[in-house]
Amino acid sequence: MDSAAVKKFLFELQDRIVTRLEQVDGNKFRRDSWDRPAGGGGRSCILEEGNVLERGGVAFSHVTGDKMPPSATAHRPELAGCTWEAMGVSLVFHPRNPYAPTVHMNVRMFMAKKNNGEIAFWFGGGMDLTPYYGFTEDAVHFHQTCQNALAPFGNHLFPKYKKWCDEYFFLKHRKEPRGVGGIFFDDLSEPDFATAFAIQQSVGNHLISAYVPILERRKDTPYGERERDFQLYRRGRYVEFNLVIDRGTIFGLQSNGRIESILLSMPPLVKWRYDWHPEKGSHEAELYEKFLVPKNWV
């Protein structure tokens, strides 16, 4: 179990993604290294008010502790009180153009040392797409790339992780999906460390090819106040999910993480409305009717 190899991969993954998005946007990310008093540290890369990205963040963290947070032991009560380390890369890109979707990706690893000296580990992560105006070709491309990422490890993984994503990125209090999904997995330790790590690597390595072609296709689409208004309204769902449901956000808060990095995923501008519904037959209604419904895109 080589945690150093995982850390090296994650740090280099952050660099590669940031460099590619700088090429698309034309602006540089701010690179902010930090230390955590309780143990560990990380580097947050942030771009605000860019040409293409209104806000984009790619965060690397490697943190340690003496006692596992409740969110990490919910399914493993035997690890309560164990020393632990967690590392990962998490990103969210919020484009300026309403026709360009938001994307989220996270790849992470946890290790805990039991009282008997045994090491427990698991990997998790995935990526998902949140459009404001739906395009079938974008959803198909994104899901096809997710399928390609998992194909080397067996044809059974994509439908399993796709279903998991649909179920996880669902706002129960709204009774609606956050977006068109993608893939999601957690608690992965089988069949062994090397295979689980390889799956994490493949997912992380496919983010650029999954998202950048879509972003480049939509970033210059003409739009007006109506589209912008709807984008800000739909961003509210993103905020609600992150603060109420997301395990990564909850873990960060419970483990006394660095708040600037934990909330790096938040969009810069958001709107909420009371009991609002899109006009029937509108492009806004089409998002709900044709895209915010689980389906097999590939």
TrEMBL record:
<feature type="binding site">
    <location>
        <position position="143"/>
    </location>
    <ligand>
        <name>a divalent metal cation</name>
    </ligand>
</feature>
<dbReference type="Pfam" id="PF01218">
    <property type="entry name" value="Coprogen_oxidas"/>
</dbReference>
<feature type="binding site">
    <location>
        <begin position="106"/>
        <end position="108"/>
    </location>
    <ligand>
        <name>substrate</name>
    </ligand>
</feature>
<keyword id="KW-0560">Oxidoreductase</keyword>
<feature type="binding site">
    <location>
        <position position="94"/>
    </location>
    <ligand>
        <name>a divalent metal cation</name>
    </ligand>
</feature>
<feature type="binding site">
    <location>
        <position position="104"/>
    </location>
    <ligand>
        <name>a divalent metal cation</name>
    </ligand>
</feature>
<feature type="active site" description="Proton donor">
    <location>
        <position position="104"/>
    </location>
</feature>
<comment type="function">
    <text>Involved in the heme biosynthesis. Catalyzes the aerobic oxidative decarboxylation of propionate groups of rings A and B of coproporphyrinogen-III to yield the vinyl groups in protoporphyrinogen-IX.</text>
</comment>
<keyword id="KW-0627">Porphyrin biosynthesis</keyword>
<comment type="pathway">
    <text>Porphyrin-containing compound metabolism; protoporphyrin-IX biosynthesis; protoporphyrinogen-IX from coproporphyrinogen-III (O2 route): step 1/1.</text>
</comment>
<keyword id="KW-0479">Metal-binding</keyword>
<feature type="region of interest" description="Important for dimerization">
    <location>
        <begin position="238"/>
        <end position="273"/>
    </location>
</feature>
<protein>
    <recommendedName>
        <fullName>Oxygen-dependent coproporphyrinogen-III oxidase</fullName>
        <ecNumber>1.3.3.3</ecNumber>
    </recommendedName>
</protein>
<keyword id="KW-0350">Heme biosynthesis</keyword>
<dbReference type="InterPro" id="IPR036406">
    <property type="entry name" value="Coprogen_oxidase_aer_sf"/>
</dbReference>
<comment type="similarity">
    <text>Belongs to the aerobic coproporphyrinogen-III oxidase family.</text>
</comment>
<feature type="binding site">
    <location>
        <position position="173"/>
    </location>
    <ligand>
        <name>a divalent metal cation</name>
    </ligand>
</feature>
<comment type="subunit">
    <text>Homodimer.</text>
</comment>
<feature type="site" description="Important for dimerization">
    <location>
        <position position="173"/>
    </location>
</feature>
<dbReference type="InterPro" id="IPR001260">
    <property type="entry name" value="Coprogen_oxidase_aer"/>
</dbReference>
<keyword id="KW-0963">Cytoplasm</keyword>
<feature type="binding site">
    <location>
        <position position="90"/>
    </location>
    <ligand>
        <name>substrate</name>
    </ligand>
</feature>
<dbReference type="InterPro" id="IPR018375">
    <property type="entry name" value="Coprogen_oxidase_CS"/>
</dbReference>
<dbReference type="GO" id="GO:0004109">
    <property type="term" value="F:coproporphyrinogen oxidase activity"/>
</dbReference>
